[in-house]
Amino acid sequence: MEYEEYERMQENEPTDDELLDMLDAYGFMEYTVGGGEEGETYSTANGDWLACLDYHSYVTADGDLKVAYHVVVNSESGCFIDTVESGVLVNDEVSWLIDLPMRYFAIAQDMAVASLCDTYSAVGANSRWNQRMQEIIEKIS
């Protein structure tokens, strides 16, 4: 690659903030974990709690892997929806994202809002998430 082409590629690379702006965990809802739903007998006493996760990966002109991630928690019974975590990880840091959905699901379990059905759903979401993270990590390996 010629130096001028390399410079052009670097100039067009998204900033960390631009990577984060691409995310919409609550709108995308591909990776969700939690439990309880409004109106269910089970959740009436314990409430409801749902964590939604999203990510976007990018390989820089220097060959660095960047993964932006975003976690939103929604609780209708608690009357809130908010970003609880987001960031941009680089190269080896990306492996920290493995099992992130299950770390959030553990919170739902601690709050006693997660049923057995919710557990099966969380395991599936975590599996899909981990598969994508492994594929992304392999890009730079």
Describe this entry's structure for a reader.
- This protein is an alpha+beta fold and 141 residues long.
- The protein has one domain (14-140).
- It is built from 6 helices and 4 strands; from the N terminus they run H-H-H-E-H-E-E-E-H-H.
- It has a 4-stranded antiparallel beta sheet with strand order 1-2-3-4.
- The longest helix has 25 residues, at 116-140.
Coarse morphology:
globular
> How many structural domains are formed by the residues?
1
Largest pleated sheet? 4 strands, antiparallel
Count of strand segments: 4
Output the number of helix runs. Answer: 6
**Arithmetic mean of pLDDT:** 84
Please indicate the percent range of residues in DSSP E strands (runs of 2 or more): 25-35%
- Strand order in space, largest sheet: 1-2-3-4
Keywords:
27% strand, globular, disordered N terminus, alpha+beta, 43% helix, 141 residues
